[in-house]
Amino acid sequence: MKPGYYFWSGDIAAAEGAIFAGCRFYAGYPITPSSEIAERMALRLPQVGGKFIEMEDEIGSIAAIIGASWTGEKVMTATSGPGISLMNENIGLAAMTEVPIVIVNAMRGAPSTGLPTLVGQGDLMQAKWGSHGSYEIISLYPDSVQETFDLMVDAFNYAEKYRVPVLFLIDGMLAHMYEKIYVPPEDAVERIERKRPTKPPGEQLIYEPDEDLIPPMPRIGEGYKIHASGLTHNEKGYPELTPQAQERLIRRLNDKIRKHAEEIWKVEEYRTDNADVIVVAMGSNARAVRTAVDEARKEGIKAGLLRPITIWPFPYKYIEKYAVDYIVAEINYGQIYHKVKEYASGNVELLPKMGGELHTPQEILHALRRYKK
Question: What is the pLDDT confidence band of residue 94, given thresholds at 50, 70 and 90?
C-alpha cells in the first residue's frame, strides 16, 4: 500500500495493518461484524505473495494458522464472539506450544447469537480466560480506525517477540465505522521478527528459553526435530507428565509475559493530572467519554479519562497511580470494572450498558455531575 491518506473502515484497517505488519497467511470463516476482514484479505494477500484460505469453521481457521506459523509465516484470523468461543481450545494450544498468532475479535452484543450487527464489549474477560488453565496472552483494543491500523503492527510484533497468541479486540461500531487514516512509509515502522535458533539441528532444543524466558523458534522443514505437543512437555517438546515439569513450564509461560508487562502496556491518560474522578472506558466507547470529560471541565468538574489500550496484561499500575474515584463505562454488566475495583484506592462505580449502543456523552456527563463541588 502506497503511503498516504485513505478512507477505510476498522475492518479494512485491521486487514491492511496486518499486511503492513508482514502477515502473509490468513485462514478464516465469515461472521458479522468481522467478515469484511476476510474479504479484504482474500483480495489483498495474493497481491503481496500471501495466501488466503476460507475454512469450514472457526476451529479449522485457528488450527490452520497455528500450523502455518510453524513454517515461519506471520499469520492471522478474525471472528466475533461465537467464533472466539469455538477457537478457545486452540488458543490454549497456541499458548502451550508458544506459537505466534494474531486473532481479531470484532465484539458484538452477546451472549449467544445476541445482536450480530450491533456493538458490544462482552468479550473482555473471555480474551484472558477463554481457554482452560493458567496462561498469559496479550490483548489490545483500539478506539479509532487509525489506531486499529497502527496497533496491528504492535500486535504482530508482540506475537513474534513473546511467542504468544495476541487477541486484537475491536467492536462492532469500530469494525464498520469509516474514517480518514494515514499509512506511513514502509521503512517508518519497526517490524519485529521472531528469534531464530542459534544452534544447528541436533543441538537446539525447541523449547530451550533464553534469559528473557522466550525460546528461539525453528521452522518446520529446516532440519530441526520439532515435537509440538499440548501435553505438558520438556525443553525437547516431548511429553513429561510430572508435577515438576508442569511447575517449570507453566511458570515460564506466564512469567515471560508478566515480567515484560510494563513494556507491553499502552494506556491513554486524558486530562487525568489533577482529576478528582476518572472514567475508565475502552474502544469506541472512549470517544464519547472524551467529549463528556471536556464538557465536565467547562462546568468546573475535574474529570479525566483513563483508556486501557492494552487490556491484557492489565495495566494495573495506572489505576493505582491516581488516588481518585473511578467510573467504569463499559458495554457489558461489569468486566474491567472488577479489575479497576481490585486496584483502585477510591470508590469505583460501574456504568454499564448491555449492548447494542455506545454510552452517550450526556450519560457520562450526568454521572460526572455528582462530583461537582
Answer: very high
pLDDT at 280 > cutoff 90: yes
Per the DSSP assignment, residues forming a β-bridge with 233 are 239
Q: Which residue, 50, 44, 164, 45, is CA-closest to 101?
A: 164
Q: How far apart are CA 351 and CA 345, in angstroms?
A: 18
CA angle 321, 326, 330 (to 5 degrees): 115
Q: pLDDT for 187-238, tens place per residue?
A: 999 999 999 999 999 899 999 999 999 999 999 999 999 999 999 999 999 9
**Residue for cell digits 507453566?**
250
- Which sign, positive or negative, has the C-alpha torsion 141, 79, 101, 130? positive
Q: Do domains 4-188 and 268-371 have the same CATH topology?
A: yes
**pLDDT 10s digits, 53-75:** 999 999 999 999 999 999 999 99
Q: Which fold has domain 4-188?
A: Rossmann fold (3.40.50)
CA angle, residues 125, 139, 163, in degrees to nearest 5:
125
- The CATH number for 268-371, chosen from 3.90.180.10, 3.40.109.10, 3.40.50.12280, 3.40.50.920, is 3.40.50.920
What is the mean pLDDT of the segment spanning 180-191? 96
Cα maximum dimension of the chain: 71
Query: Quick one: CA dihedral 334, 316, 93, 221, positive or negative?
Result: positive
**Residue of 318, 247, 252, 256 lying closest to 282 (CA atoms):** 318
Q: Specify whether the CB–CB gap between 106 and 78 falls below 8 A.
A: yes
Specify which residues 278 forms β-bridges with. Answer: 304, 326
Q: Which residue has the cell 454499564?
A: 352
What is the domain partition of the chain in residue ranges? Answer: 4-188, 268-371
Query: CB-based contacts of 295: which residues, under 8 Å, 6+ apart?
Result: 361, 365
